[in-house]
């Protein structure tokens, strides 16, 4: 009995789907008259004129002569080279950033966009917790240790205590030399 009911339901469903598809196809075929009328109207219009080709401007070559200019690969003038050496010789050569080392993640952000939010002791080493207050990493907390670099001015962590982080930075001065400065990042008070 159950199979008979299922077969009847299946037949009814097939008949309904066939009738729906036939009705849909018939309704689509009756709307083609509007489309055909539009195509006939467009074809009946006279063809437009083709615009004439634009005039081709004659190419005039330009002679570029740089023989009278200074070559960028030539040696420096002796007076200028002496002035540069004098500037470099006046600088403390021990205070220079290490340009050969790989930069750390926190060196992409200025120290103004960071604040110390705590410290953690692990295996008798004190780690500092720094929270980003601006930029794409805003709200993220990073752990740092002594010797890590951070900030855009070649900052290096010298010491971490429970309430502050001591950082030495290298800042260029007006003479073209590097000047070492100490910055303290105090624990943020909430």
Topology readout:
Layout: H1 2-30, H2 32-44, H3 78-89, E1 114-122, E2 125-132, E3 141-144, E4 149-150, E5 155-160, E6 164-172, E7 178-186
Antiparallel strand pairs: 1-2, 2-3, 4-5, 5-6, 6-7
Question: Could you explain how this protein is built, in words?
Answer:
This protein has 190 residues and is of the alpha+beta class. It is 28% helix and 25% strand. It contains three helices and seven strands, in the order αααβββββββ. It has helices at residues 2-30, 32-44, 78-89; strands at 114-122, 125-132, 141-144, 149-150, 155-160, 164-172, 178-186. The strands form two sheets. The protein has a four-stranded antiparallel beta sheet with strand order 4-5-6-7, with no helix packed on it. The radius of gyration is 40 Å and the shape is flat.
Q: Summed up, what is this model?
A:
This protein has 190 residues and is of the alpha+beta class. It is built from 3 helices and 7 strands; from the N terminus they run H-H-H-E-E-E-E-E-E-E.
Strand content: 15-25%
What is the annotated CATH architecture of the domain at 105-186? Roll
Distance between the termini: 77 Å
Coarse structural class: alpha+beta
Q: Tell me the radius of gyration.
A: 40 Å
Strand order of the largest sheet: 4-5-6-7
Low-confidence stretches: none
- Series of H and E elements: HHHEEEEEEE
Give average pLDDT, whole number. Answer: 83
């Amino acid at each position: 009995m159950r199979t008979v009911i299922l077969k009847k339901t299946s037949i009814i469903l097939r008949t309904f789907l066939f009738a729906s598809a036939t009705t849909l196809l018939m309704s689509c075929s009756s709307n083609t008259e509007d489309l055909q009328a539009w195509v006939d109207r467009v074809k009946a219009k006279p063809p437009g004129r083709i615009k004439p080709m634009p005039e081709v401007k004659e190419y005039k070559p330009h002679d570029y002569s740089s023989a009278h200019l200074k070559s960028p690969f030539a040696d420096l003038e002796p007076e200028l080279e002496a002035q540069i050496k004098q500037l470099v010789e006046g600088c403390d050569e021990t205070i220079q950033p290490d340009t050969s080392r790989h930069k750390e993640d926190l060196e992409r952000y200025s120290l103004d966009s960071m604040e110390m939010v705590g410290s953690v002791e692990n295996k008798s080493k004190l780690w500092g917790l720094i929270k980003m207050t601006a930029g794409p990493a805003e709200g993220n907390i990073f752990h740092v240790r002594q010797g890590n670099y951070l900030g855009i001015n070649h900052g290096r962590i010298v010491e971490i205590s429970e309430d502050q982080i001591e950082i030495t930075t290298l800042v260029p001065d007006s003479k073209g030399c590097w000047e070492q400065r100490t910055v303290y990042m105090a624990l943020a008070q909430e």
